[in-house]
């Protein structure tokens, strides 16, 4: 039977070159409609997971050594980034990687190259509604936006492709507490609009406030998996994620 999970990763191992194994036998699931968070310290393998899912691994010199990645009933293992976007999986690039010399509107166009016509216009209206700050700054060079606004633009750009699954790689990195709250609200709104979310985060408090379930990754392995409510109550885990455990 074909699984209709938004994401179903099974036994995934990833290498960079010959000597570095960044993920070991990682298995995880994002059911359709869920927000699932992946937490872990620096170097645990979180970004590697995002790259494997979105096809960006080869660009970074990485490769899938074993395992499968399925999404909405199809095997997408080793597909190209563009094919994966077409399939309905979009991600915000690491850091904020927006095009600084282009306007906000042009950056959004770049995110919408796989959709056309009415759908493109609807997506544009939807993201400007979600991010009024970007609406106000449509014609401004993206490089002149504040850090928080650039982060919003990265999320908005990913939403332009009508994703069924959105992969967010540390969307709160470097943001003020107020903006972290805004990102959390935005993730809830995205989920309510019907998009599943894989949320990669170091900020466990924020991640567990919006997620349905979570996984903890350490040295390339999943060491813990539970509902967000149970993970929130786990003090040992909180210490681990703060680097104290
Ligand atoms: P961070 O939050 O610091 O980005 P992370 O949990 O996302 O950490 P990864 O960036 O996935 O972790 O890194 C996992 C391991 O793979 C680390 O040991 C890292 O040094 C290594 N690694 C990551 N990218 C590359 C690369 N392009 N080439 C070689 N090794 C890499």
UniProtKB/TrEMBL annotation:
Q: Which UniProt keywords apply?
A: Amino-acid transport, ATP-binding, Nucleotide-binding, Transport
Q: Where is the ABC transporter domain?
A: 7-244
A Gene Ontology molecular function term of the record: ATP binding
PROSITE patterns in the record: ABC_TRANSPORTER_1, ABC_TRANSPORTER_2
> Pfam families given for it?
ABC_tran
Which InterPro entries does this chain map to?
Answer: AAA+_ATPase, ABC_transporter-like_ATP-bd, ABC_transporter-like_CS, BCAA_Transport_ATP-bd_LivF, P-loop_NTPase
Residue spans making up a coiled coil are none
Gene3D superfamilies in the record, alphabetically?
Answer: P-loop containing nucleotide triphosphate hydrolases (3.40.50.300)
User: Which family, according to UniProt?
Assistant: Belongs to the ABC transporter superfamily.
Q: What is this protein called?
A: ABC transporter ATP-binding protein
Source organism lineage? Bacteria, Bacillati, Actinomycetota, Actinomycetes, Micrococcales
């Amino acid at each position: 039977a074909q699984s209709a999970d938004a994401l179903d990763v099974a036994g995934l191992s990833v290498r960079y070159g010959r000597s570095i194994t960044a993920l070991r036998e990682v298995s995880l699931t994002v059911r359709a409609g869920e927000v699932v968070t992946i937490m872990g310290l620096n170097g645990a393998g979180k970004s590697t997971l995002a790259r494997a899912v979105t096809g960006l691994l080869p660009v970074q010199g990485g490769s899938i050594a074993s395992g499968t990645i399925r999404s909405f009933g199809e095997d997408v293992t080793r597909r190209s980034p563009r094919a994966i976007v077409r399939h309905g999986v979009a991600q915000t690039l690491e850091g904020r990687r927006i095009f600084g010399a282009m306007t906000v509107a042009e950056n959004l166009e770049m995110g919408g190259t796989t959709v056309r016509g009415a759908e493109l216009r609807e997506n544009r209206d939807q993201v400007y509604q979600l991010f009024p700050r970007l609406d106000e700054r449509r014609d401004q060079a993206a490089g002149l936006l504040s850090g928080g606004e650039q982060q919003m633009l990265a999320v908005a750009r990913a939403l332009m492709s009508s994703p069924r699954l959105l992969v967010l790689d540390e969307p709160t990195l470097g943001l003020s507490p107020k903006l972290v709250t805004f990102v959390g609200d935005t993730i809830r709104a995205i989920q309510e609009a019907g998009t599943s979310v894989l949320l990669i985060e170091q900020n466990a408090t924020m991640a567990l406030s919006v997620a349905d379930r979570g996984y903890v990754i350490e040295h390339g392995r999943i060491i813990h998996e539970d509902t967000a409510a149970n993970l929130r109550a786990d003090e040992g885990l909180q210490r681990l994620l703060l680097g104290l455990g």
